[in-house]
Amino acid sequence: MAARRKGPPASPPPSVQAWGELLGEAIGRGMARGFHAGLSQLGLTQPGAPFGPRPRGRPPKAVPLPVPADKRCQVKGCPRPARSKGLCGAHYQAERRRNAR
Ligand SMILES: [Zn+2]
Fold first, then answer.
1. Domains of the chain: which residue ranges?
2. How many angstroms separate the alpha carbon of residue 73 from the centre of ligand 1?
3. What are the angstrom distances between the C-alpha of 84 and each of 23, 27, 79, 89, 96?
4. How many Å apart are CA 25 and CA 4, to the nearest integer?
5. Ligand 1 center from residue 61 Cα (angstroms)
6. C-alpha triplet 94, 80, 92: angle, nearest 5°
7. Exposure of 22 by Cβ count < 10 A (0-12 exposed, 13-18 middle, 19+ buried)?
8. From ligand 1's centre to the CA of 66, what distance in Å?
9. How many angstroms is it from 65 CA to the middle of ligand 1?
10. What is the rounded distance in angstroms from the CA atom of residue 23 to the CA atom of residue 28?
């Protein structure tokens, strides 16, 4: 039986190490490409899709939909939807503050 070597196992020569790293990288890239190809077949690589590249920065503000006249704040010129007592949130607060005095 071969004599068992004592001490830490010998590290592989640098060429083998470099080769191993290259191999690992190649495998990683191959898997990523395969994974991405699979996702694109599922139609999951559009911008904004959960797996796709996330758009940077703050998401664009949702464009407020025009509020129908009967649901609009009673204050002239206020385009916001009425929340309570026919007033939008801001005007309702202002109203309450006015009343609180
Ligand atoms: Zn208002």
1. 14-47, 69-99
2. 5
3. 66, 61, 15, 7, 11
4. 33
5. 20
6. 20
7. exposed
8. 14
9. 15
10. 8
Extract the tokens encoding 10.
């010998």
* Digit-coded pLDDT (tens) for 80-94: 889 888 999 999 999
Return the SS3 of 72.
strand
Higher-pLDDT residue of 27, 61: 27
- pLDDT one-digit tens code per residue, 8-49: 667 778 888 888 888 888 888 888 888 878 877 776 655 555
The protein residues having their C-beta less than 5 angstroms from ligand 1 (an ion) are 73, 75, 78, 80, 88, 91
Give the pLDDT band of residue 53 (cuts 50, 70, 90).
Answer: low
